[in-house]
Amino acid sequence: MSVTQEQMKKLTQNLSKLHSGSQWVESGIHSTLDYIDTLSNVDTAWVKTTVSSVATKGHLREDKEIRDMSPSDLLACSPQKIISNQIALTNIMQ
Questions:
Q1: Would you say 3 and 11 are in contact if contact means Cβ atoms under 8 Å apart?
Q2: Is residue 77's pLDDT more than 50?
């Protein structure tokens, strides 16, 4: 895949932190496009199409509703320090 000078100029103008006509930008883009060409020549006919890279289904725990917990029981579950029946956040309440 090759890029014309006009396409290169337009591309580099659209990149906010790069200067148009910069030698290293052009060589980097050309090497990237050459790599894409290489990848497009790889035979992938035997590769099964996927919609996800994870083949297994996620294992989630079942939610259980607990209605008999008091606010103090809920606060006791926190690993954070409790001050005046509130969870203390570091650098805010200490």
A1: yes
A2: yes
Which alpha helices (DSSP H) does the chain contain, by range? Answer: 5-14, 23-40, 71-76
Phi and psi of 65, rounded to 5°?
-85, 130
Per the document, the length of the chain is: 94
Partnered with residue 87 across adjacent β-strands are: 82
Q: By the 8 A CB rule, do 8 and 29 touch?
A: yes
What would you report as the CA-atom Rg of the chain, rounded to the nearest whole angstrom? Answer: 28
Tell me, what's the pLDDT at 50? Answer: 73
List, in sequence order, every residue forming a beta bridge with 83; answer none if it has no partner.
86
Question: Distance (Å, rounded) from C-alpha 76 to C-alpha 62?
Answer: 22
CA separation for the pair 13, 25 (Å, rounded): 11
Nearest CA to 10 among 2, 18, 1, 20? 20
